[in-house]
Amino acid sequence: ELGVDCLWLSPMYPSPLRDDGYDISDYYNIHPDYGTLDDFKKLIAEAKKRDIRIITDLVMNHTSDLHPWFQEARKSKDSPKRDWYVWSDTDDLYTETRIIFLDTEPSNWTYDEVAGQYFWHRFYRTQPDLNWDNPEVIEEFKNIARFWLDLGLDGFRADAVPYLIERDHTSNENLPETHEILKDFRAFMDEEFPGTILLGEANMWPWDLRPYFADGDEFQMCFHFPVMPRLFMAVKKGEVSDVIDIMERTPDIPANCQWCTFLRNHDELTLEMVTEEERQWMWEQYAPEDRMRLNLGIRRRMAPLLDNDRRKLELLNVVLFSLPGSPILYYGDEIGMGDNIWLFDRNGVRTPMQWKNAPNAGFSEAEETYAPAIDDDAFGYARVNVENALADEHSLWYWTKHLIAMRKEHPALSRGSYEFVQTDNPAVLAILRKCENETILALANFSNKAQVARVALPEYAAHEKVELFSQIPHGCKDETHRTLLEPYEYQWLLMRD
Ligand code: GLC
After folding, report:
1. Would you say residue 475 has pLDDT above 80?
2. Residue range 153-179: average pLDDT?
């Protein structure tokens, strides 16, 4: 009903859940807590009926240490699975590689008593890295992909892809050999399952992300990580230059590719792609308490981050929908769900969806859920839930539905070119989106004060303009389009010929 046309499911495979499912112990099944393969087939069929595609996470870089492959591999150096993982007699190899889970892992090597060697892991020590130099691993992952795509899945979000291959004296990230493997994987999918998609998770700078699109023959889509924290920076500073700057430093991508943009997801709000100084500032502003921080990020949800201020929530969402790329919404953010910073790791932003004011927020009839539903005063399920949102025509849910519908109605917003237009006001962002038949000027005031912005658009002076949210015509016929914007106000101005 919201208008979502693709679901991305985080890992639903059997797993000991040491990393909430990103530690897979069987790639060919569904975790019994979630249901069965038949349930999953039914989900795909029901989604198709509603024109909703489904992609799932495919964790390629590592498995769970409880996966039978690893259990087999550690048994002996002669084990046929030994070479499926990355081993060393010492832990002083690959010392130029950074640690990602800084809060918990002192090293990327862990000694395994049974194996009598160290194994390599870029994430938790319960997630040994697979050895992608081994052709058997490549073949196995093609079989895994075949299994799921045969069921009618529409593609994968390929998890943690920069780290597939290791080479001494490198950072072991974004290596050319890794790109080769990914391209080969894409070619295989195109050939056997045309129309399916690979979305890459590479938390990198735009110039390091660009190679993941290659010549349009590697990933069709990649997350644009660096713009995300800058949107939060901009709304706190009341100034938009950081957003413009990172987008202008983003290289063009092939015509058959697209960015995926987002405000929040299931992980911490990552601050990997900002400077040390910016990170400190973001932590001070958005994570004043220690337990709100995790690794290089902030483990909070969108509504609490934005002071549950409807104006800021709308502003950032409109900007997200005005930037190039396909916006991804995190479940629950459309009703303004909160977080639980008392839960371990990133679980605080992974609490049950709040459907209604009922036990477990209506998420489950089980006596107890994996994580408790949020029940605090501001964000608890008694108040913040889907049922209430649907009963209130002014709710954030209805507003989000409207936003999605408008983006679908106006191809300039989804497929159009984009350029930043000078506004003479550092608090106001102006993005011009253009496609063959329409032009839309998106204006957004990031400041908590009213602002006047003058936008030099002489070629559109004579055009009639209508603001799409209010449907109010905009009378201005000046060469320098002059607009007054209330605090955090936004506009989408459609230029009529
Ligand atoms: C990705 C996932 C994250 C997970 C990590 C290791 O970054 O988004 O949740 O912990 O990969 O698999």
Report:
1. no
2. 98
Cα(447) to ligand 1 centroid in Å equals 34
Q: Residue 149 and residue 189: Cα distance in Å, rounded?
A: 9
Query: How many Å lie between the centroid of ligand 1 and the Cα of residue 463?
Result: 48
Main-chain phi, psi angles of 419, to 5 degrees: -150, 150
266 CA: nearest ligand 1 atom = 9
Instruction: Provide CB contacts within 8 A for 147, sequence distance 6+.
Output: 27, 28
At 260, the amino acid letter reads: C
Which residue of 199, 267, 344 sits with most ligand 1 atoms within 8 Å of its CB, as the best mutation to test the pocket? 267
Q: Ramachandran region of residue 345, left (φ > 0), alpha (ψ -120 to 50) or beta?
A: left
Helix (H, G, I), strand (E, B) or coil at 35: coil
Q: Hey, how many other C-beta atoms are within 10 angstroms of the C-beta on 340?
A: 20
pLDDT tens per residue, range 392-449? 999 999 999 999 999 999 999 999 999 999 999 999 999 999 999 899 999 999 999 9
Q: Which of 160-169, 412-421, 479-488 has the lowest mean pLDDT?
A: 479-488
CA of 282 to the centre of ligand 1 (A): 22
Among protein residues, the one with the nearest Cα to ligand 1's atom 11 is 160
In the chain, the percentage of residues whose pLDDT exceeds 70 is 100
pLDDT band of residue 497 (cuts 50, 70, 90) is confident
Residue 223 pLDDT > 90: yes
Q: What is the dihedral of CA 291, 297, 302, 303, to 10 degrees?
A: 30
- Ligand 1 centroid to Cα of residue 408, in Å, is 30
How much is the pLDDT for 479? Answer: 80
Nearest CA to ligand 1 atom 3: 267
Q: Return mean pLDDT, the chain.
A: 97
Residues 311/313/315/319 CA torsion (nearest 10 deg): 180
Where are any strands of DSSP class E within 201-321?
Answer: 221-223, 258-262, 269-270, 293-294, 297-298
Pick the catalytic residue from 23, 105, 159, 314.
159
Whether the pLDDT of residue 186 is over 90: the answer is yes
Residue 467, beta-bridge partner list: 472, 493
Report the nearest atom of ligand 1 relative to the CA of 122.
Answer: 6
Instruction: Pick the catalytic residue from 166, 201, 314, 345.
Output: 201
- The amino acid at residue 236 is K
Asked whether 388 and 395 are in contact (CB, 8 A), the reply is yes
Atom of ligand 1 nearest to the CA of 23: 12
Task: Judge whether 242 counts as a catalytic residue.
Answer: no
pTM of the model: 0.97
Distance in angstroms between the alpha carbons of the first and the last residue of the chain: 33
CA 98 to centroid of ligand 1, rounded, Å: 16
